[in-house]
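Technical note accompanying the year-one report. For the benefit of new consortium partners, we illustrate the data format agreed upon in the data management plan: each record pairs a sequence with a structure-token string. No post-processing was applied to the example shown here.
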Amino acid sequence: MTSTAAPRSQAGASGVAFLLQLERRLRLLQDTGEILALSAQLLGQRLGAQQVACFDIDQALQCPTLQHAWSDGLAPGAAGEYFLGDYAARLADALAAGQALAVSDVASDPRTAMPAALATFARLGIRAFLNIPIAKEGRLAALFVVHSSAARLWHADEIELAVQVSERVWSTILRAQAESRLRALSASMETQVAERTREFGRTWNVSPDLLGVLNLDGYFEHSNPAWQATLGWSEEEIRTTKFFELIHPDDLPRTHAAWEAANQGQPALRFENRYRHKLGGWHWLSWVAVPEGEKVYCSARDITVEKKLEAELAARNSERERLWRSAQDLMVAIDAEGCFAAVNPASAAILGWLPEEMLGRSLFDFVLPEDAAATRLALAKVTQEAMPSFENRYRHREGGHRWLSWVAAIEGDLIFATGRHVTVEKEAQHTLRNMQESLRHSEMALLQSQKLEALGKLTGGVAHDFNNVLQIISGNLQLLQLGLDGDPQAAKRIASASAAVERGAKLSAQLLAFARRQPLKPLVTDLAQLLRSTEELLRRATGETIETRLLLADDCWRALVDPHQLENVILNLAINARDAMDGQGQLTIELSNSVLDSDYAARHADVAPGDYVQLAVSDTGTGIPADLLDKIFEPFFTTKGEGTGLGLSMAYGFLRQSGGHLTVDSLPGHGSTFRIYLPRSLEAETELPLQLSGPVLGGKETILVVEDDVQVQTTVVDMLRGLGYGVLRAGEGESALAIIGSGVPIDLLFTDVVMPGKVASTELARRARVLLPQLAVLFTSGYTQDAIMRGGRLEPGVELLSKPYRREDLARRIRHLLANRRHVTALHQYRAQLAPQPPAPPGARSILLVEDHADARAMTSELLAMLGHTVLSVGTAEEALSLLGTPGLELLLTDISLPRMSGAELAELAARDHPRLEVVFTTGHAPANSGVLDPQARFLVKPFTVEQLQQALLAPG
């Protein structure tokens, strides 16, 4: 319902005039009922209200007593008790605080819109009201109410007028009551004067209190002997001295105010001030003064001693208060219910809670649940005897907890306790225990690490020599295979021997992985995507009777890791799990984020605190006995009775080399869980490296082979010459530098990493490139060292061909390096020849360039832009797929050899979905060896000239 505004009362002078008229009329009244009747009538008529009432609040607001009610005749009121219930309970605090309450419509105001209250309002015909509280000695004493039968908007001047009226009415009532009491007292005294004159005279003379009768001029007309006994002044001196002259200067303002009030008829009760003694000094007096007619009857008691004691007590309390407030320890008082009755300010510094936030609350709201039982026992004990010391933990406002050491004693109904903050000491003790435990774990981990490191050095050295032997065997087998003239028996034997070499190479790679000497090519990898791509392989490896589950968190971080090596580790763990379950059970692979803190790192010497991606592989197999857990990562150790025993050692070495961490939890009969932790990478995901394929081609370039093992050197030289290359050879770095410095043209340096002599392989490569800036460099080794590695990973830009390698791998890698070198060199030359940013020619085209080699991609993009074309460039076919539908795109210029999807596959998809899009292939091979079957395909052979590039971009026809 919409409230209708009642006519506003006139403000300003009109309101003041109304209040003055009301005061004049009230002064003439002595009866409380008449005072209330007149004020209610005038206020109701003034505000246009239907009813004005005054309630006397005896005990609680819920049950007020209606003393008087005026109404306009339409809403008669009746005196008596009223029950306001929950409605009053909601308003009690605001009214007790002296806040006037205005409700324009009881039906819509949330403070009144309660079914019970609305029913009462409806019965009384109330739609809007004002509640004006009157407080007496800190509590609600009375309540003025103004009722309206219609909804109305109470204006500020109306509310203020009602407040002013209520204050004046209450003041008048108090005055009338005091006067009534005084009149009654006076009448009583008059009746008793005659009977007690003699007793009064005796009392007057012997009373230790100072008695006197003041006239309105401020002189004591009568004073008893106690004045002289207390202050040294004779009766005559008191009678002829105005009493203000005897009062302490600091007390004069208050005394003048009390005197003015007495002249207005208001008595003074327990009024205190200081009077001067005749011999000097001041005495404190406590007065009761009652005005009656033209006199003020006074009685004063000397309270000087009490005041002195109060001052001393206040000083002691002040000192105690300073100690209470300045103490660094937490000091509390606890009542019988276990609630805080007092709390000192140290609570804020120690616990973050202000004292007022703790007062009245149970201490168990703050004690940690784990310490609650012990705390209850301590409280029970302290009620019988003093508690010497007790420790527990309290919640801190900002989280966490604080240790407190308590001493307590009981006094009356309260327990007084002091709590010393001992969190630092407790943490120090905890840290010391952790350090001792960590030291024990570190010592064990160090012993295990030293054992594995020694084994790693041994296996790494063995693998190095083994790889050289394998390279000799493999190279000669491949050279023999080239000379076969249709001899099937010889071919079969060579194939068998080559397969044995492959198995030996795999064994050597596992040894190098354990020794942390394998060359890694880490990429920023999305492990969730990697697991999804290997899911089918895992299911085939474990078999149909094993239930394989992947639980991959949605927000997993990326990690810097060699994805191919990680796939091998996961597959090896899955196969181990399958064998442990005897072909029947559940394999669970979980991927999630994990933060390893300093406490964890302290217990595991091979891991640093930080963010990690956790990959857990769990099975329901037979489990691993506890006495074997420390041995499972050692090479050649196996619990299966078969296999090489290198799977877990390889996984351990690879993860340590990758900066990761590997743990195992196992319970015999219940299965095992291997947890892999790989450091989080904040870089963007990188592409998979190029997998070289295609025909085995040679060339006419010159290659310098640097190899200290003569047999390996001979084999490699024969392979390269068989591919058509010119070959120079050297046994160590100094000889190689001499050859390079002779001026002989050399296109590629093929050098072993580990060589004797003063010039290391990396120094050889650096000095060779100073002499021949365009020289391509390819390293080879069966045992990589820190010379070309950083943190177990290849240095950026380093090309490595690991021993033993096949003739096909050698040929493709050399051809790839030489083609890229020539292509980038040519692109630099052509860019230098072009004028910067010529205007776009009429034949400018929109081109999508796909090239995995970063330098070649950048140079080709720049050349195309300088030729006036619009270019989009990406490094993989997968990136290109989303750009094929770019508006206005005319031509796809793509390399054939790309990571993952090849350029030929990309072209097939483009022809299917965008048949009008032209396609030009770039390749380092002859078009006939490109693998593209379309006879109409257009090719651009690397390295190409600007003219060849422009010609390839011309539209057909």
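Partners are asked to follow this layout when depositing records. The two ends are 84 Å apart (CA to CA).
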